[in-house]
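SAMPLE LOG
Freezer: B-3
Tube label: C17
Construct: single chain, 125 aa
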Amino acid sequence: MLIMKFVICRGDFAVEYAGELIEHSTAEERENKYAMDVSKGCYMYYFKTKGKHYCIDATVETGRYGRLVNHSRQTPNLMTKVIMNGKIPRLILVAKHDIEPGTELLYDYGDRSKESLAAHPWLAK
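STRUCTURE (predicted):
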């Protein structure tokens, strides 16, 4: 859980979802591997930009905060945005509206697959 300590205005950068940028096929292999180890979490964000599928794998603890932002389908206060650093895509979370200090940061993970909802019913909330 990540709690805001100062005001973030609508449209402002909040945090980067930082990790290793990997190809979609590599991400699926890693996700299956991570699922075998119940002591390890899985922090992967799949996205598409400029016609290519990518994944940011933030599973390895690096001290970066983006992977700690929780999900809310109904009341997200952040949204993801792809920005380009040269030819390399990066994911940032920006404020959907003004966010006051003491507010938990939330964004919609966007996963609506039947498999994911069966395994993680909280994704519907």
